[in-house]
Amino acid sequence: MNVIVVDDERAMHLIMSRLLGKLPNIEVVGCFSDTFAAEQFIHEHDVHVAFVDISMPQENGMQFAERMTRQQPGLYIIFITTHKDYALEAFELHALDYIVKPVSLDRI
C-alpha cells in the first residue's frame, strides 16, 4: 500500500516514515510540506492513503481532503493533528481515521 504524509513539520515526516516503515505492506512514497505538492504527486502516482495534518500553510488539511475526496474517491485520508475539535468535520469528509498527535504505532 502506497502512503504519503502531508505535514508542514518536517519532524513529522521522519516520525511517520519510521512508524509506518514498521508495518508490513506499507511503503511511504512521499512526504510533503504543502498540500499543492501532495496533490500533484497524487495525480501522477498510485497513492492509496494520505496522512494529513490539519494546520497547514496556505491551505489547511480539511480543504485539501475535501478536494481530494472529489478528485480521487479511492484515496483514504487519515488526519494526524493536534486539534481535537475537527474530528466530526473530518468524518463528514469520509476520513478513514483521525489521530491526535503524538502518534503511536499502536494507534496507527
User: What is the percent of helical residues?
Assistant: 25-40%
| Number of discrete helical segments | 4
Classify the beta-strand content into a percent band.
15-25%
* Arithmetic mean of pLDDT: 94
Would you tell me the structural class of the helices and strands?
alpha/beta
Give the topology string: H per helix, E per strand: EHEHEHEHE
Uncertain stretches of 5 or more adjacent residues: none
Major β-sheet strand ordering? 2-1-3-4-5
Topology (SSEs and partners):
Layout: E1 2-6, H1 10-21, E2 27-32, H2 35-44, E3 49-52, H3 61-71, E4 76-81, H4 87-92, E5 97-100
Parallel strand pairs: 1-2, 1-3, 3-4, 4-5
Verbal overview:
- This protein has 108 residues and is α/β, with parallel strands linked by helices.
- The chain has 4 helices and 5 strands, in the order βαβαβαβαβ.
- It has a 5-stranded parallel β-sheet, with helices on both faces.
- The longest helix is centred in the first third of the chain and has 12 residues, at 10-21.
- The radius of gyration is 12 Å and the shape is globular.
- The two termini are 14 Å apart.
- The mean pLDDT is 94.
